[in-house]
Amino acid sequence: MTGSAESLEHASADAAAVLRTDSRKVYILPTRFGVLFGGALLLMLLVSVNYNNGLGHLFTFLLAGIAVVAMHYTQRNLVGIRLVATPGRPVFAGDTARASVSASDELRRERRAVWLRAAGGEHAFDVPRDGQARIELPFETTRRGLVPLPDIGLVTIWPMGLFCAWTRALRGAPRQLVYPRPAPPGSLPDADGGGEGGVPGGRRPGQGDFDALRDHQRGDPLSRVHWRASARGAGLKTKVFDGEGRSERVLRWRDTGGDTETRVSILCRWVLDADAAQLAYALELPDGVVATGSGNRHRDLCLERLALFGSGS
């Protein structure tokens, strides 16, 4: 029997992985229906020989020839497929990540009823001639860091279901970035990095004259709500005073407590809360410091540092 070989090449580190199948290691075996079909052919052959029935011989060998052709087409359905697996957007530990897999044809042949098998599930697709198919591959995450994608295999029983051909495609490459699981909502450390007993305390109200209004956020004291603006249908608004919201926060490892994962989880929550409050903040870890900044890119950089903390990546 023949089978498909895989040639694995990394386009860039953990960015994508490419597989091109050839005809050397596509494994193929009869299906249960194929075994029954073969048994029926053997029985037909014995009966034909026993009764010297020429028509029985003709019909038996005709069906056997059809089975051999079907075996060839089943194996041929997998050869020459190019797979590209790309990690999805980073997610938090415990959430479902969604990688993207594209399958294209390199031999100008249409591929039908191919199954991509990964993460305990199967995803059917067809590949048009000179075209490609895109498959979304969901899988669960349980830990932070760079997590390998699930092993991906290709399977087909097309065209007659007599034979099953398969190949192991991508194994453990590339890797998905998974952020730490955030701690339950709490309060940010004060602008000076202090807290109550080493545990982060609440935000101190800014001092000075009234400056502006902003949307109400979780943790804002009710005494700061501008009730008149809310009564006019503008939604909950919080009063901002001179200097408030522009003070820099330093999110320090030493201001947290517990084991490593607990501390990383707390810092992850602080990063998310500081970003939601549109604050400028820095992140201090035992292995380095992320300078003060704000915005989506700064948030993603801090979350990535937390995801990779202690992993040596």
Q: What is the residue-averaged pLDDT? A: 82
- Kindly state the percentage of residues in helix: 25-40%
Order of H and E elements? EEEHHEEEEEEEEEEEEEHEEHEEH
Category by helix and strand content: alpha+beta
Question: How much strand content do the residues show?
Answer: 35-45%
Q: What integer value in Å does the Rg equal?
A: 30 Å
Which stretches are poorly predicted, pLDDT < 50 over at least 5 residues? 1-13, 193-207
Assembly state (oligomeric): single chain
Roughly how many Å apart are the termini? Answer: 42 Å
**How many separate helices?**
5
Shape: elongated
Physical arrangement of strands within the biggest beta sheet = 1-2-4-6-9
Question: Count of DSSP E strands?
Answer: 20
**What is the domain tally?**
3
